[in-house]
Amino acid sequence: MKNINMIKIIAAIFVLIVIATTILGIQFQTPKDDHNHTETTENAQVVDHSNHNHALSNGNSDNPFVEEAQLYTCSMHPHFRSEDPNERCPICGMELVPVARGNDESETSNVEFSDRSLALLNVQTQPVVRAEGQQQLRVTGQLEFDERALTSISAWTGGRIERLHVNYTGASVSKNDPLVELYSPELLVAQQELLQAQKNANTSVPGFLQESNQTTLRAARERLRLLGLTQAQIDAVIASKTASDRVLIRSPSAGLVVARNVAQGDYVNAGDSLLELADNNKMWAVFEVFERDLGLVEVGQHIEFALQSSGKSIHGEIISVAPRIDAERRTREVRVAISESEQLLTAGAFTSANVQIPIGNVLMIPASAPLITGKRAVVYVRDAEQSGSFSARNVELGRKLGNNYEVLEGLAEGELVVSRGAFLIDSELQLRGQPSMMAPEGGGATGHENHGGSAANEPVANTTATDHSAHNNQSTNSSATIAQNQVDAADLAPVFTAYNDMWQALQSDSLAEWQAAAGDFHESVAAVNWPDSLSSVVEQLNTGAGHAHHVAAISTARNQFHAHSQAMIELAEAGYHQGELHVMFCPMARSGQGASWLQQDDELLNPYYGAMMLRCGDNQGVLPGTNNGSESSGGMSNQHNHVHGGH
Hints:
By secondary structure, the protein is an alpha+beta fold. The chain is built from twelve helices and 27 strands. It has helices at 2-29, 115-121, 185-201, 207-226, 231-240, 422-432, 479-485, 489-507, 511-526, 535-541, 554-573, 635-644, and strands at residues 72-73, 81-82, 97-98, 110-112, 124-127, 129-145, 150-154, 159-164, 172-173, 178-183, 246-250, 255-260, 267-268, 273-278, 283-290, 302-307, 313-321, 331-338, 350-366, 371-373, 376-382, 389-401, 404-409, 416-420, 581-586, 595-599, 618-623. A six-stranded antiparallel beta barrel has the order 6-15-18-17-16-19. Strand 16 and strand 17 form a beta hairpin. Helix 8 (489-507) packs antiparallel against helix 9 (511-526), helix 8 packs antiparallel against helix 11 (554-573) and helix 10 packs antiparallel against helix 11. Residues 28-67, 102-108, 444-485 and 628-647 have low confidence and may be disordered.
């Protein structure tokens, strides 16, 4: 009986537990209010109370004049907002900048900053000026001996080289120094004829025979002169009354032996070149000018250039331009005579020149002012000198004049343009959905405009996670996860810039410029927070890292550039770049294995050969890159889809 009672008690307790659990479950599932929370992430700090009519709840909700809290954002990822100025962007780790306040509903490309925001952003402006412009033409070349000061020492008669007094190239000789001693049977016969003619001329004969003997003597002397003997040597033969079968050839001028064409013991014929001399105090700088730039140079123009070895500046005058364009390189040689006598100049030395070509009075802005995407350029103009209001302006740019751009249309003299900080202003316009450089039609460029919840420009304090459950993807993605799976194209912009500088240096055959550009390249690569999925690409990008300044041969630099190019092309094909890039390919590079590289324009300039075969290669196609700074048509767009659930 006791066992039966115990079983009943346990069963009753179990029933009570089940009933209580059911009641509690129903209670927790029943909403207490008629709220509509569009975002319910696990740690979300922003909730859309769209059906509420609340004022800003910061402890002073009853005070309509309370100042709105200052928000801060990341210039690379403007969709992130925070009220803490000391916080870092959870995606890229950059410092935050103040968010400008203004009329968010405005449809014009205008933004206004407070004085404090301007100070923190460090926005700088410069006036549009009209001044005498100078276009810079950068050309490369090498030093050569002045062709007008070359001397060829040739054999005046056939024979054998008995002795070479100068038997190596590079020897320096003075005028009348002995060069070659030549054995010649023909010379022996001619001297014997001279002695006989001299003997006959000294013999007393009738008048008509005396005139004939003098004519024969003059002919014998002339024959010896034509065989290479000087008048002094001919007189010495007559004085000694002894014929010699050897002739000593002396230097007609001072100079440097640049070629030795014979060796001691060689047989030569009349007219064969024995040695070549050059005046090492008379040099030319021979530059290669591309076809498109030929209109900027002319004979008589004075230019200044520098030697790669010493960096010393040298002045010269253009004395000639090659008569035709090289069919392979599409260049013409421009010869510049060096005006001053330089004892340390060496033929074959690499040189580069920045030719300043005056172009007259033009309207100019700093080169850092325009934001350029393809053929479109945008500048931000300050509405007044002390105003915090800035507006976007489409401009038409002309030539790049050193550190300035020529302005053809869109600006007037005296207007203030932003020379530093334009990208930050453009990011704010993108965030507001207004027309900007990255989004000409407006609508923003963050990739978050169509999400449920807060608008792009709504204050979002300390947001670290957003519920994208409506996208049928993973429910939550923390900022740490985002940082591990994506890299923005803007983060890689310095990498592509440094890569372009390396290409410029190699196609110009400048090892020193490549060393500087390679150092910048590796620093830019190290500054990027690379995801694990790109580890193999990063390994190639780090080829030669930390050792660029030790590279002593340009061939080594080109081998490293090939590894860098493979990785950069992979990034570009995935869409991790801004603006168009052209993929070039040279089938002859790397001993016939072929090699590719990237260029910003379609004018092929081969970095693997430089001036040797500058035009060798083909254009393999164009990679469009990002359209608006955050999305791309390549792999970068796909990766965004994976992380954010297909925006």
